[in-house]
Amino acid sequence: MISKKDFIHKDRMIKGISTSGDIKISVVKTTDVVKTARRKHNLSLLNTVLLGRALTATMLMASELKGEERIRMRVEGKGPVGLLVAEANRVGEIRGYVQHPEVELDYTNEQTSLSDGLGVGILTIRKTLYNEAEPRTSSIELVRGNITDDVAYYMVQSEQVPSAVLLDVGLDGQGRITEAGGVLVQRMPDAPEGRIEAMQENLLQFDSISELLASGHYIDDIMEMVMEPGGVKELDRQPVDFFCRCTRKRFVNALAMLGPNDLKEISDEGQELVCHFCNEEYQVSKSEIEELLMQTKAKMN
């Protein structure tokens, strides 16, 4: 049974605006989200931090969406991690995966940095919005490969919104996740020149988000600390979770979209299908595939 303390401090996102109306802020706690991602994908330390930051970032960016609109981050680099994908929607469902979850860096080499995991690459953001037939997509080259600086650069270059971003996944001496979370601060159109730059400098002086959360500060406290002096008004808050909508039925329906030749090739035996996002496995029997093949042939006659 979850304790009252754990419930009060569970993963959530909070949104606010400065009392002067010139700065927007979103703060999210994603500790359990990142722990779930690590458990489902058996992530190395490297991938725990990189995917954890990406999951946190997509949720922060999704705070600007409506309803079940969603945003997907795809990072493809030439480093050992390869491909990283994170997705979130406005209702607080987050999911993601990496191509090579087991890879690790040589931390005994003093020249090694987190950025070596992704290396040179491209970050692509895709937004699926209401009333738009096609998703909006934009890409940038990775500037650091640490996710945090890349997302901040994306916000300025592609969204053209001066922003300050903090993303953090804390690990203890045994490699266990302590806390995880992030902050996104954005300048409103009527903000005075230099306002967001001053806030960026202020954020550089902050303790890490994981340390603030571990010391008992919650998202409300962090939001107020970031917006000092001047105050902030809360606009919204909601729970967030690692959640995937995949089902066995969806996978069977996807198989039904295959042509008769493709179905015939796999009809000799059952299939084990695995969801990239949550690593859930689904078994589809030989007889089910044969039935799909017959249905597909019948539609063509």
Topology (SSEs and partners):
Blueprint: H1 4-8, E1 12-18, E2 23-29, H2 31-41, H3 45-62, E3 70-77, E4 83-89, E5 93-98, E6 121-128, E7 136-141, H4 148-157, E8 163-171, E9 177-187, H5 195-204, H6 209-214, H7 219-226, E10 232-239, E11 241-242, H8 248-256, H9 260-266, E12 271-274, E13 281-284, H10 286-300
Parallel strand pairs: 5-11
Antiparallel strand pairs: 1-2, 1-10, 2-9, 3-4, 3-6, 4-5, 6-7, 8-9, 12-13
Question: Would you give an account of this structure?
Answer:
By secondary structure, this protein is an alpha+beta fold. 33% of the residues lie in helices and 29% in strands. It has ten helices and 13 strands. It has helices at residues 4-8, 31-41, 45-62, 148-157, 195-204, 209-214, 219-226, 248-256, 260-266, 286-300; strands spanning 12-18, 23-29, 70-77, 83-89, 93-98, 121-128, 136-141, 163-171, 177-187, 232-239, 241-242, 271-274, 281-284. Strands 7-6-3-4-5-11 form a six-stranded mixed β-sheet, with helices on one face. A five-stranded antiparallel β-sheet has the order 8-9-2-1-10, sandwiched between helices. A two-stranded antiparallel sheet has the order 12-13. Helix 2 (31-41) packs across helix 3 and helix 9 (260-266) runs antiparallel to helix 10.
